[in-house]
């Protein structure tokens, strides 16, 4: 590397197994440096620094580092969080433990739930505001101070202040926070309405509790990482990925630590949105298939679908705006078995990474989707990434024969094919439900597949779903890291009005929108990161009076009139439900502004950088093998090496396209083409299906 | 299994049928108007056989109490339908024809493929009102069906795809808040259209005969799967009992007495020793009685599929002459929400004797229905507010019971306090975990809820249909019972407990009056003296119980600082 930082951009994403790094570096051969190193679980920062070293990147010579971390998500799932206390309205400390009166599954009465803040750390003070924001009981300031002392004695390092109806009147919450900060400057303090100014006390309170519980954890982690990078001479602000698909300066990230939850899947979808839009597919379903599960997202008009209704696990709603990613319980490690009714099932049980599929040779004994792919020739037996001890294809086939084939009267190959078909059928069904539940028909989308196993199944899924186009990005295995380099700065603001349009003062709407935008602009300016321009996107959540569902409606630029709100809502409702309800009054529930600091566009073609390109597609063929396909059975199939394919290469299926960390299957009758950015575009014949 | 039916096709068709139901569920709840359906999922969608209405598949996200009722109701429609054509949709809510309570309105639609009847599609949606004496329909003291609301025999609401305005106008003239119902009606019918479209796609792809064969084969296999579960239960007869507080009219307990007999691969449920039919609305119609048994079994074996085959080895003898087999005009508005849960509790209790390791102590088992109707002087508009509450679940082999779980027969979420206070003139003074309510045990029961609401302005009438006020949810294997439900009315400065403990209708209250409700805790599981004392100390730290309660119920003595006094505990427990 030379001595300047010009144009050198690093995205580094920590995943469950690997830490991936991509460095766009004009001085590198092909313009790109990549690294994949094992994730260091105890301190992810070590893996990040190791990835920089592995890629030969000196932090001091990088213009910008953008980082995706699972620190907060893991802390929550493993409950390794800061000891957190709650100060809340008298009479309501159990709101966070009682939840919304549910159970984890529809059937079975043995579920469990532990709130993030145990009962002994939830304290009450006298105060009460009603739904109109009117103060019924004044804030007991002495009570707040007494609670602070108690929580300090109980060993808390973080505090949530969460009062009923604070979305309607924040005065008590603000004053209480002020008192806590004065009396206890060392504590991390989160006010419920600061994170989320929406009604629904359980969701708002839990979201605040999540923020408080991970805030010290994230702060410590980012301090350590920033320190490590500074030692290597990195002087710029480190940017951190958020669940909303945007980035935030590391110095501000911990204040709203909850926003970094689920940032990994979000950054995958952001990369997909950027890449698919550039490839001419602004409407896409993303399919990120990993070892234990798969993530599905929707991209509409080039923008990832955002929602604010994540349940990280049972009883842990996190209602901040996030990229809407739905996780389905099928991945390469999903186990196939015969159930009590004698039917073949695939998943949801998974062999995970350990012991993993049989073919990993780590002691796995149950046949998985990956094993079926191996037996059917879709995966190259010589190239299994994670293999510890060699297991032959025959070994795997023998287990599939015994476990699945014999009970069903099938050969090993037929049994493997059955596993694959049922897995694809199930995954296609799940993708369908994800899009339908959000009001979209999958046939109107392209399928954008990534992750270790996504490209292996994408074309079959597209066929099942009658999706005509599949996009396979240049680097399917490091998509999340790419999301880091293409993401904009982003801050979201939500205010609840919950007022029928008939009694709404539109001036309030305009004022709140202006305040939201101003807050976003101020925050981005404070981040001191170079942006090309700042952009605000406004939307409203609306419903018909009496309904509980809300519908999010995007607004054009400029200040909306009452009429335009009504019209846009009616149009959106019609598009979504094909129902007109002129008799019923529309209600404006929430105002939402996303403020984006647009960063310089990233040259995607650099990601496809390769010095192995050949003159023709034929020359990229590195071998042939016998591969099983639905409908045709075994076919002698050419294996292309992706790095050798020339730009605009076109070829027909059946084909296998192999690359460093992914394998793409192209079925007979499908055709593929490599575009200028290195995406593989596959056209699927969908005429005969559904 | 016919030759065209390979194992892959069979599994794919099973998944496909399930998917059709799931898509109907989504279509219904996403576009439904009333929160009861859109938010609390009080609805279900399914596919039924053309001969007799046997259940082919039903959505896994439907309300559990509908698992067995919709096939009975579809059968009743098939029996009565003279001529059907594509696009017809029957509407029916008659409880005595395969129903639950009147509020559960079913739409039943014949599905034609290439001009031939292939199967029936049906769904149920809980309407927020169906007329009758009480807004919302949960009467505590009706003595005949007519007081409970509008009863619809199977009639065609849509004829060849066209909504019949005359029938619609009869319906809308007999229910409250009628102006919003059209949104639900359209959503409910549209869900069946979605099912029709998806099923057509499936038949196009696999062929009518293959799908037919698969349906028969899946039914056979579901029966086989259920039988495999039953075979593992020791042969024998197991008696159990569950008590309904009263029928709301006569202040006397109603007993559900079950003898469950397991023989080979079959289970027989005999309720014939239960109380006779009652005057008030706590009678159960036979479809609900059967369905309650099915849903209890499904709670015990959650992974069994739901189709007619599953029910084959479960034999529920018609409990003629008891309150569990109501005939017209017996009032039944309490059966779906309350009696059903007592029936399930009796099944749990019998099964606990047979296979204790699989079971759990009794859950709170009441929907905790509290409704408040009146006129808000601030808005000048009428309102009907329902509060449905959860309670503690029972302890089990794997751990303590869940707190504030929803009813056995439901899957819904509560309405947030902030939403209730926005919409209705009431103010919560408290919404808290009910301390001490979980039954003692090696695994203790979960906790119920304690809430208090006050009317801020105007006048209103309050009604309750709850249960488990007389005795708490049963403990299991030596565990203690959960705390019973309580209701306290504070009216004009005086407080009283309703005569029927958990049921009363039309209590007139005014500004400043308040109601306090405490819902049941779950039963405890196993000998309390075998609970780890450290768990007891933690429960004390969290103020779940007082030190005295810990000592009395678990024999654990705590020192001043809340830590376990080992020596004293040993002495106490020996």
From TrEMBL, chain A:
GO terms for cellular component: cytosol. Residues 509-676 form the Acetophenone carboxylase-like C-terminal domain. Residues 10-182 form the Hydantoinase/oxoprolinase N-terminal domain. Residues 204-492 form the Hydantoinase A/oxoprolinase domain. GO terms for molecular function: 5-oxoprolinase (ATP-hydrolyzing) activity. GO terms for biological process: glutathione metabolic process. Pfam families: Hydant_A_C, Hydant_A_N, Hydantoinase_A. This is Hydantoinase.
TrEMBL record, chain B:
Pfam families: Hydantoinase_B (PF02538). GO terms for biological process: glutathione metabolic process. GO terms for cellular component: cytosol. InterPro entries: Hydantoinase_B, Oxoprolinase-like. It comes from the Bacteria. GO terms for molecular function: 5-oxoprolinase (ATP-hydrolyzing) activity. Residues 6-528 form the Hydantoinase B/oxoprolinase domain. PANTHER family: 5-OXOPROLINASE RELATED, HYPOTHETICAL 5-OXOPROLINASE (EUROFUNG)-RELATED. This is Methylhydantoinase. It comes from Thalassobaculum fulvum.
């Amino acid at each position: 590397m030379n001595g300047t930082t010009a144009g050198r951009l690093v995205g580094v994403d920590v995943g469950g197994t690997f830490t991936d790094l991509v460095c766009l570096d004009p001085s590198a051969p092909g313009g790109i440096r990549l690294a994949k190193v094992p994730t260091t679980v105890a301190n992810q920062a070590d893996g990040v620094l190791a990835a920089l070293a592995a890629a030969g990147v000196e932090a001091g010579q990088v213009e910008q580092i953008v980082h995706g971390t699972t620190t907060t998500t893991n802390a929550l799932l493993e409950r390794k969080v800061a000891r957190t206390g709650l100060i809340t309205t008298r009479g309501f400390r159990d709101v966070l433990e009682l939840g919304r009166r549910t159970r984890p599954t529809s059937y079975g009465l043995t579920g469990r739930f532990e709130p993030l803040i145990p009962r002994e750390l939830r304290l009450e003070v006298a105060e009460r505001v009603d739904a109109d924001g009117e103060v019924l009981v004044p804030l007991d300031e002495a009570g707040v101070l007494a609670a602070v002392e108690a929580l300090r004695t109980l060993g808390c390092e973080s505090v949530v202040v969460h009062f009923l109806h604070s979305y309607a009147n924040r005065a008590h919450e603000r004053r209480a926070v002020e008192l806590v900060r004065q009396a206890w400057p060392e504590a991390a303090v989160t006010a419920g309405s600061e994170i989320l100014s929406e009604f629904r006390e359980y969701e708002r309170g839990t979201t605040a509790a999540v923020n408080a519980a991970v805030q010290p954890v994230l702060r410590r982690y980012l301090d350590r990482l920033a320190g490590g990078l500074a030692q290597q001479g990195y002087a710029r602000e480190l940017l951190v990925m958020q669940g909303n698909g945007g980035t935030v300066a590391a110095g501000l990230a911990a204040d709203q630590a909850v926003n970094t939850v689920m940032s990994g899947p979000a950054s995958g979808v952001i990369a997909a949105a950027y890449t698919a839009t550039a490839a001419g597919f602004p409407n896409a379903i993303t399919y990120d298939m990993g070892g234990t599960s798969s993530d599905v997202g929707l991209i509409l008009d080039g923008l990832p679908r955002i929602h604010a209704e994540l349940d990280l696990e049972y009883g842990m709603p996190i209602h901040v705006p996030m990229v809407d990613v739905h996780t389905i319980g099928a991945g390469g490690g999903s186990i196939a078995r015969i159930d009590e009714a004698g039917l073949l099932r695939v998943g949801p049980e998974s062999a995970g990474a350990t012991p993993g599929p049989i073919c990993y040779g780590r002691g796995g004994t149950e046949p998985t989707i990956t094993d079926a792919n191996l037996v059917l020739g879709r995966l190259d037996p010589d190239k299994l990434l994670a293999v510890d001890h060699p297991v032959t294809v025959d070994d795997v086939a023998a287990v599939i024969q015994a476990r699945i084939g014999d009970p069903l009267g099938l050969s090993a190959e037929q049994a493997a094919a059955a596993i694959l078909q049922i897995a694809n059928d199930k995954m296609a069904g799940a993708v369908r439900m994800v899009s339908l539940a959000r009001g979209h028909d999958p046939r109107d989308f392209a399928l954008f597949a990534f992750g270790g196993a996504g490209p292996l199944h994408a074309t079959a899924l597209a066929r099942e779903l009658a999706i005509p186009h599949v996009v396979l990005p240049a680097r399917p295995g490091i998509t999340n890291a790419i999301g880091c380099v293409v993401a904009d700065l982003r801050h979201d603001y939500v205010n609840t009005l919950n007022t029928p349009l008939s009694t709404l003062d539109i001036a309030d709407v305009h004022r709140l929108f202006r305040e939201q935008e101003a807050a976003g602009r101020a925050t981005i300016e404070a981040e001191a990161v170079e942006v090309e321009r700042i952009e605000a996107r406004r939307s409203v959540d609306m419903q018909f009076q009496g309904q509980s569902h809300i519908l999010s409606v995007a607004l054009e630029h400029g200040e909306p009139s009452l009429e335009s709100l009504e019209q846009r809502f009616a149009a959106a409702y019609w598009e979504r439900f094909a129902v007109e309800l002129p008799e019923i009054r529309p209600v404006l529930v929430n105002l939402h502004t996303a403020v984006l600091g647009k960063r310089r566009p990233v040259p995607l073609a650099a990601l496809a950088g390769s010095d192995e390109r050949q003159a023709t597609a034929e020359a990229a063929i590195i071998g042939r093998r016998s591969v099983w396909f639905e409908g045709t059975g075994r076919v002698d199939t050419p294996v292309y090496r992706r790095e050798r394919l020339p730009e605009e290469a076109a070829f027909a299926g059946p084909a296998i396209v192999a690359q460093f960390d992914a394998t793409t299957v192209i079925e007979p009758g499908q055709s593929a083409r490599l575009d200028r950015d290195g995406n593989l575009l596959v056209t699927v014949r969908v005429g005969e299906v559904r | 299994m016919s030759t065209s039916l390979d194992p892959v096709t069979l599994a794919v068709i099973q998944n496909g049928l399930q998917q059709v139901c799931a898509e109907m569920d989504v279509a219904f709840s996403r576009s439904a108007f009333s929160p009861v359906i859109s938010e609390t999922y009080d609805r279900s969608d399914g596919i039924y056989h053309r001969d007799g209405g046997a259940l082919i598949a039903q959505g896994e996200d439907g309300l559990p109490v509908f698992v067995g009722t919709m096939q009975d109701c579809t059968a009743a429609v098939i029996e009565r339908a003279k001529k059907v054509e594509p696009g017809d949709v029957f509407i029916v809510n008659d409880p005595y024809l395969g129903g639950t309570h009147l509020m559960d309105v079913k739409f039943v639609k014949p599905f034609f493929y290439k001009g031939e009847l292939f199967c029936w599609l049906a769904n149920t949606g809980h309407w927020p009102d169906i007329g009758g004496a009480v807004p919302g329909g949960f009467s505590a003291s009706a003595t005949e069906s007519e007081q409970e609301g509008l009863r619809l025999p199977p009639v065609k609401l849509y004829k060849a795809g066209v909504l019949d305005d005359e029938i619609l106008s009869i319906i809308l003239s007999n229910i409250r808040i009628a102006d919003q119902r059209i949104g639900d009606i359209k959503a409910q019918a549209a869900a069946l259209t979605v099912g029709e479209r998806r099923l057509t796609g499936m038949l196009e792809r696999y062929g009518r005969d293959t799908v037919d064969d698969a349906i028969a084969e899946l039914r056979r296999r579901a029966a086989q799967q259920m039988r495999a579960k039953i075979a593992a239960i020791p042969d024998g007869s197991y008696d159990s009992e569950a008590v309904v507080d009263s029928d709301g009219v006569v202040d006397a307990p109603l007993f559900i007495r079950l003898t469950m007999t397991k023989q080979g691969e079959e289970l027989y449920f005999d309720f014939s020793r239960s109380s006779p039919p009652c005057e008030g609305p706590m009678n159960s119609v036979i479809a609900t009685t059967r369905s309650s048994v099915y849903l209890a079994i499904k709670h015990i074996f959650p992974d069994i599929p739901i189709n007619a085959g599953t029910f084959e080895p479960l034999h529920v003898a018609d409990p003629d002459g008891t309150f569990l087999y109501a005939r017209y005009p017996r009032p039944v508005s309490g059966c779906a929400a309350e009696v059903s849960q007592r029936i399930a509790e009796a099944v749990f209790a019998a099964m606990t004797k047979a296979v204790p390791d699989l079971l759990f102590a009794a859950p709170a088992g009441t929907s905790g229905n509290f409704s408040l109707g009146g006129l808000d002087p601030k808005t000048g508009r009428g309102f009907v507010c329902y509060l449905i509450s959860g309670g503690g679940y029972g302890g089990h082999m794997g751990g303590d019971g869940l707190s504030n779980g929803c009813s056995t027969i439901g899957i819904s979420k509560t309405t947030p306090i902030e939403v209730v206070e926005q919409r209705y003139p009431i103010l919560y003074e408290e919404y808290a975990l009910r301390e001490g309510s979980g039954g003692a045990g090696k695994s203790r029961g979960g906790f119920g809820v304690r809430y208090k609401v006050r009317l801020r302005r105007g006048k209103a009438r309050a009604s309750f249909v709850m249960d488990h006020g007389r005795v708490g949810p049963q403990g299991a294997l030596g565990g203690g019972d959960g705390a019973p439900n309580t209701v306290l009315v504070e009216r004009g400065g005086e407080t009283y407990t309703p005569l029927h403990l958990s049921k009363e209708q039309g209590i007139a209250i005014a500004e400043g009056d308040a109601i306090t409700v405490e819902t049941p805790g779950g039963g405890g599981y196993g000998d309390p003296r075998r609970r780890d004392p450290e768990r007891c100390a933690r429960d004390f730290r969290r103020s779940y119980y007082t030190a005295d309660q810990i000592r009395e119920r678990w024999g654990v003595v705590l020192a001043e600082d809340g830590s376990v006094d080992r020596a004293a505990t040993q002495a106490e427990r020996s």
